[in-house]
Amino acid sequence: MKIPIKFGLMIAAGVMAWVLIAHQVVANPASPVHSLIGPIFFNVLQFVMIYLGLKETERERGDRLTFKEGLKTGAFISFVYALTVSLFFGVVVAVVGTRWLEHEPDFGRVPTTTLIAKAFVLLFVGAMFLGLIYSTVISFFLAKRQSEG
């Protein structure tokens, strides 16, 4: 259980560092740095960390994982990431306020609490959903086959 926590927290740390650094360097929240490059970075980071987490699990066990074991480990990594980054988002909203959300299409048209709740849910569910997809793909290629024993 240590590996999912370790790799989930590493993804979250990378995302947190990106968000804090990118918002310091590029002040405009509507910039492509935030709207295009950021999500690409987050997804590549999540994919790579799930892969590395599964490989470390294999090394620790001394044997290849089954598809189900790989999928569960990847899902746990994604859960730790999703939960941690959602908590980080809550802290950011509490400290910075909603000025980083002003570029959202619904900003000003819906209550701020609704916008924040929607962002929380989409962040958590999106991280979990993509994590399951990434875990499935990676586990498919790394899994021990029945013919291997």
Account of the protein in words:
The chain is an all-alpha fold. It has one domain (2-148). The chain has four helices and no strands. The longest helix has 31 residues, at 112-142. It is elongated. The model has no long low-confidence stretch (mean pLDDT 89).
Topology, pairings included?
Blueprint lengths: L1 H24 L6 H30 L5 H30 L15 H31 L7
Number of helices: 4
Average residue-wise pLDDT? 89
Low-confidence stretches: none
How many individual domains? 1
Summarize the structure.
With 149 residues, this protein is an all-alpha fold. It contains four helices and no strands.
Notable traits:
mainly alpha; 149 residues; 4 helices
